Amino acid sequence: PRRIRAVALPGDGIGPEIMDAVQRMLAAAGARIDWEECEAGAGVALPGGLPGETMDAIASAGLVLKGPLQTSLGGGGKSANVTLRKHFELFANIRPARRLPGVVTPYADRDIDLVIVRENVEDLYAGIEHMQTPDVAQCLKLISRSGSRKIAEAAFALARAQGRSRVTCASKANIMKLSEGLFKEAFEEVAAAHPAIQSDHMIIDNLAHRLVLSPESFDVICTTNMNGDIISDLTAGLVGGLGLAPSANLGAGMALFEAVHGSAPDIAGQGLANPTALLLASLMMLRQAGLPSVAERLEHALYVTLEDGKELTPDLAGPTGIDAGSTSAFTDRVIS
Amino acid sequence: PRRIRAVALPGDGIGPEIMDAVQRMLAAAGARIDWEECEAGAGVALPGGLPGETMDAIASAGLVLKGPLQTSLGGGGKSANVTLRKHFELFANIRPARRLPGVVTPYADRDIDLVIVRENVEDLYAGIEHMQTPDVAQCLKLISRSGSRKIAEAAFALARAQGRSRVTCASKANIMKLSEGLFKEAFEEVAAAHPAIQSDHMIIDNLAHRLVLSPESFDVICTTNMNGDIISDLTAGLVGGLGLAPSANLGAGMALFEAVHGSAPDIAGQGLANPTALLLASLMMLRQAGLPSVAERLEHALYVTLEDGKELTPDLAGPTGIDAGSTSAFTDRVIS
Ligand SMILES: CC(C)[C@H](C(=O)O)[C@@H](O)C(=O)O
Ligand SMILES: CC(C)[C@H](C(=O)O)[C@@H](O)C(=O)O
Where is the Isopropylmalate dehydrogenase-like domain positioned along the sequence (chains A, B) (predicted)? Predict the structure, then answer.
């Protein structure tokens, strides 16, 4: 099998533990990855937490597996996560939500298998904000036709590549007729060029409502940045929570994979962290890098481990916590 | 018992049917209400759908029960719902989500009883939008300290009045540090003045996640307009859907009660509409108007009817639909 080269950013809090666990599982599954480990996050004595060497290594490798970064790291108050997305123009944020075996949720009997394709650089995340008076704040929501078309194209390309049949656009175009309206309009232009894939539109609040009522009825959802932020946490919750939620940030010639959860400083260093989200992110990376069979093998091992239900990390081990395992015990089970 | 005076706006689509049903139930329960029925919605030959006489009647009565209004009624593309909220400065939108007996949901075993207190006039709903170029749209998100303090005060006042112990502020202050940050800051100022009630803060995406995982752990949630729009549809879904979701819009000396759902033109006039959301809204109105015992009686009748599960409207009657009733059959059961 091919060798690939990737940057690893272990990041803050539980990041180093789960990165180590995932690298062990990938190696055991036979993934041949040359890791370049780089510093990022609160440990870096630099506002923003992203040294130039790290940025250079990312630019050169084009493939990144990233642990959680603390949200506020100085640097003008900008989030390091957002900085990475902007700097490398990672305009597409792909967030699958799929039912996992053995994970107890109110929806365990529903066949949930959806993907959120979230626009990742525009909207309220443009960071254009000011105080008009000491008592009035304004923030600019920015939507461009080209940005909206790009994310719609990404959604239809993903649907085609994964053999999915429907893409649902979600917006608040009934209230923000120009900005969210432009997003919807661009989506419809792109949809018209993909007649083989069904498309429809839902108002974002109604989407939140329908996702809770019948998540199994959704396939691909394409939406703006802020809407996607909220909705993707909702869908992560439907299948068991952020501890199980991977994400891909895609740009031109650049792909960064991450767990959606935070750095969980309260449990860091105690061997309690669940590496599943980062593992699932690494499987998305393997598939992106053209190593689907290794991904398949490891996914199978994860599913069997979850289904067995032994030595799961405490977040998954059920209310009694009896039989809970550590990060490394769980990792060993997946490997064996 | 006291007589009260209220404006009824039956509105569009299923509006007249459910308004009629609710007025019958209120009368049967002994509520003495002088209704002034006014025109609003698509039937009105006027852009915006809100005649001057209707606005005058509302201003004079100060108490309104409103059916659904079609979202787009001309009038510069403004939503009639939003126009009413703005014109009468109905700054607080109160949306309870409470488990109902007999309603089958994935959360039927959870004791859900929460209230969303949504800021109702600021934020992205200010309606300040323009096209910067034909391909770039901008929308202004506006947050004021006074508006934020008012809604926080409303949330704590509601918590106190209803004997609730905790108010959670939800914002995206980690990204929009000035605008959502101002909302959070104002909330914390107000919270400090209410030491008897617990308070905390959650990032809005994490709130969406936690609401799906453990809705029973929430009490009062105070949030900005757009966040509240999405989150309140989510919580409506948790307890059975928009067909069961009431809402109060409160301002100074003015209170407007409505169902959260739309006008459902596809089923209008067929006797299929579920009047429960508007009924629950009318119970909020009775309590607001100082008639809690009538509200109690009618609520009890509704709960018994739902629990019996006979002649429920088709949306509640389960997949087979056998035993489903019409709007009027359901109404008669509640009355009897
Ligand atoms: C950490 C934060 C900047 C980020 C976001 O708001 O996008 C997170 O919530 C996410 O969804 O990846
Ligand atoms: C109909 C629409 C204007 C409205 C809103 O966006 O507030 C609705 O979704 C609601 O929540 O009452």
Answer: 3-334
